Amino acid sequence: MLEVTGLRAGYGEVEILRGVDMAIEPLEIVALLGSNGAGKTTFNAVLSGLNRPTAGGVVFEGRDIAGLDPVAIVEAGLVQVPEGRHVFPNLSVRENLELGGYRRGRANRKSNLERVVAIFPRLRERMDQKAGTLSGGEQQMLAIGRGMMSEPKLLVLDEPSLGLSPMLVEEMFALIGRLNGEGLTILLVEQNVRQSLEIAARAFVMENGAVSLSGPAGELMRDPQLQRSYLGI
Amino acid sequence: MSEFSILLPSVLNGITTGALYALVALGLTLIYGVLHIINFAHGSLLMLALYGVYFLAAGFDIGPYQALVFMPAAMFAVGYVLQRFVIGKASHDRDENILLVTLGLSIVIENLALYFFRSDTRVVDTPWSFETVELLGAFLPLPKVIAFFGALATAAALWVLMTRTDLGKAIRAVAKERKGARLVGIDVDHVFAMSFGIGIACLGIAACLLMPSYYVTPQVGHGFVLIAFTIVVLGGMGSFVGALIGGLFIGVVESLGGLFLGESLGQIGIFAIFILILLFRPTGLLGHKV
After folding, report:
1. pLDDT at site B289
2. What dihedral do alpha carbons B210, B224, B188, B100 form, nearest 10°?
3. Reported ipTM exceeds the 0.85 cut
């Protein structure tokens, strides 16, 4: 579904991604792991068209989307839920969700909205409240809900557990697993290695702007190098 | 009683003038809210619209109210093109550059107008320019009453646009959260240009409503843009309701100031309010803390 080869990108003279290779198959949930500064967020920005790659290819459903603008990429069905949520604070929860269907999924907006609030009942209670007044966890749900309103073929979740209480983190991972179970392909970009590996089918570990380790999640869990660096075992 | 009989017409007159101020300010506050800059070219674009109305009347015998069919669309196009291909391109994503570009634009537009149209004062004569309407014992010029309702209708239409349509929601979304907007596939540059275009279209409407009771010269915009800026600050930067209420209020202040201090000092009250607001409530009456 997604195939990234030799992807390079950066900011000005500074190269952040030094040749990233990775792939995602339909219906998979793939975790992209790595510590702060490894290049995960830059990778996402390039996927979504916020940054242009300097070299390499991004093929999504057989079509080269490297360097396209965010409008075209959302239109193609690759939707990102960004780190830090970036919901529209001055708009109501309902309006936030409606704008999720601005570019894609406009025709089914009503039924999509019903589906989203069925998944996140708490959003239903907050429908006419400004998004800026929601708690961090609620904003994260809203950001994911807004992403789902775009009828994504591939949903990229950037650090969905960041800043949530341990209980909410648990809930969030369970939910991501459930969304995947219902047929959504997900790229989960996380620092939270253990919980990500528990729900992912495969994982890639990024270090210094390149993939240093990859394989089925179960195998990576037992990898001594990964255990030492990320799991503290 | 006699004092009341002078006061009431003055207040009503102020409200009708204020509605037009509000219309100019609505465009300014919309552009500020989204692009985070004061559009210094606002006054000269209003001047351009007034000339548009004048030449439609002088050249094609199209009256100011009939011009309402063309002018908003024409000014929208001017605004869209200016933002998309001039202001946006020249500012390189830096807000302080936008400010300078609009200031430069206003100088260019004004001097071109001076060159082509000369500094003569021009008016459009209509048979009903001097007709009056009686309201609560006060006689109000008919064009000003029409302008009042026209301005309110425009404000209502803007409100519907901003709260009920996808475009309006996208405009509000872009105003606060550009990255989030890009990630749902909103074309931010297009939304910027639409906002600017809509703000300038308000000037097209204002020009049609204003011309029957006003005049046009290349410098006519100055007075309006200063007052509109005061209204935007008074109402709270970026607040629509604030601009509407602020506009009506400033109109009344100006009218009463003229009554008590004489025509030439009438605007003192406006700028006194401007200074007081900046000193004591810089976020404006309905503004939010940033």
Report:
1. 47
2. 140
3. yes
